[in-house]
Amino acid sequence: MSFPQRRLRRLRRTPTLRRMVAETRLSPDDLIAPLFVREGITEPQPITSIPGVMQHTLGSLRAEVADLVGLGVPGVILFGVPETKDDIGSGAWNPDGIVQIALRELRDTFGDRVVLMADLCLDEYTTHGHCGVLDGHGSVDNDATLDLYANVAIAQATAGADIVAPSGMMDGAVAAIRDALDEEDFIETAIMAYSAKYASALYGPFRDAVDVTIKDGGDRKGYQQDPANARESLEEIRQDILEGADIAMVKPAMSYLDIIARARQEVDIPMAAYHVSGEYAMVKAAAERGWIDGDAVAIEQLTSIRRAGADMVLTYFARDVAELLND
Ligand code: PBG
After folding, report:
1. Candidate of 120, 121, 140 to mutate for ligand 1, largest count of ligand atoms within 8 Å of Cβ
2. Which ligand 1 atom is the nearest neighbour of the CA of 34?
3. What is the pTM of this model?
4. Helices marked H in the chain — which ranges?
5. Is 156 in the pocket of ligand 1 (CB under 6 A)?
6. Whole-number pLDDT of residue 158
7. How far is the CA of 276 from the centre of ligand 1 (A)?
8. How far apart are CA 199 and CA 223, in angstroms?
9. For residue 262, what are the contacts with CB-CB under 8 A and spacing of at least 6?
10. What is residue 6's predicted lDDT score, i.e. its pLDDT?
11. Residue 190: pLDDT above 80?
């Protein structure tokens, strides 16, 4: 008598067998491209620390979105780089601010063929680089910031955003934005909340991309989460869902796969993960030295994020990986 031997290798023998039994699939449908649009430039500017990614002009932005749509990427999220900043970040809700102009143009050009999202925050627009307004002691004033987020949400929805994405980690932001949108009859405008967003050292290249330096060598630890905490993320996500979030996000992705997996078990709304600028830059830098196969690592990382439970991934690899998947 011998036990039938179960050989797990049998189903790994050929690419076709492996494809048939794959538990997780990665498709261009899962990707969202973060795009930067800069006011007052006539040529797109490369971002050194996010190789292959540009600060776009309105024209090059349109061309990029056309390519992404052609590759089957359903959504883009816009970040603005304004020419001038002030204390309260008023450029963020200026109807003629660069993101609002870009949203109108892209909506005109592409109609509903692309899901237009806008990052909803103040840091790109404030002189001090924080995600909200400062109180008399120099710390971020939560409730005063909520009123300004409401202004930004209305400006972005008016300009044609399908989805606004609050990334500032202020308590009550989702509720404030939902109320403001509903009051102005933007009942169809959805909210993708940066719900579990950590105070990560992986955002450095992004801050180069949007010309943000936090005043006095400061940081965002007073409002973004401590990497030591996991349960707190579940509280953040549950709270955002109660406040009306349509999609919940975890950010960054690779160091927080446990958070994605736990959240996936607890909540049933769509979940996004943000593979952030530092994660992208690390892959690009090692690949440039010939130390890793950058394309293969990109696919492996994005597949892992999907396997952990994210339905969609915001990633600077969107275009390259969509090209690879289309081959
Ligand atoms: C805030 C915002 C940041 C990122 C997305 N939205 C920066 C921050 O919180 O400091 C980072 C994205 C990345 O690193 O790719 N507007």
Report:
1. 121
2. 15
3. 0.97
4. 15-21, 58-71, 98-110, 142-159, 173-183, 204-209, 231-243, 257-266, 277-288, 294-308, 318-326
5. no
6. 98
7. 8
8. 8
9. 230, 233, 234
10. 84
11. yes
Between CA 61 and CA 56 the distance in angstroms is 5
Which numbered atom of ligand 1 lies nearest the CA of 204?
A: 14
Q: Is the pLDDT of residue 211 over 90?
A: no
Q: Domain 25-326: which topology?
A: TIM Barrel (3.20.20)
Q: 121: Cβ below 6 Å to ligand 1? A: yes
Q: How far apart are CA 264 and CA 312, in angstroms?
A: 12
pLDDT tier at 128, thresholds 50, 70, 90: very high
Our answer on whether the CB atom of 223 is closer than 6 Å to any ligand 1 atom is no
What contacts 307, CB < 8 A, 6 or more positions away? 23, 24
DSSP state of 149: H
Chain-centroid distance, C-alpha 83:
22
Tell me which of 169, 203, 275, 301 to substitute to probe ligand 1's pocket, judged by most ligand atoms within 8 Å of the beta carbon: 203
Query: Rounded to the nearest 5°, which phi and psi values hold at 83?
Result: -75, -35
pLDDT, position 251: 98
**Which residue lies with its CA nearest to atom 14 of ligand 1?**
203
Q: What is the predicted pLDDT for the residue at 1? A: 59
How far is it, in rounded angstroms, from Cα 277 to Cα 323?
A: 20
- Name residue 197's beta-bridge partners: 251
Domains of the chain, by residue range, sit at 25-326
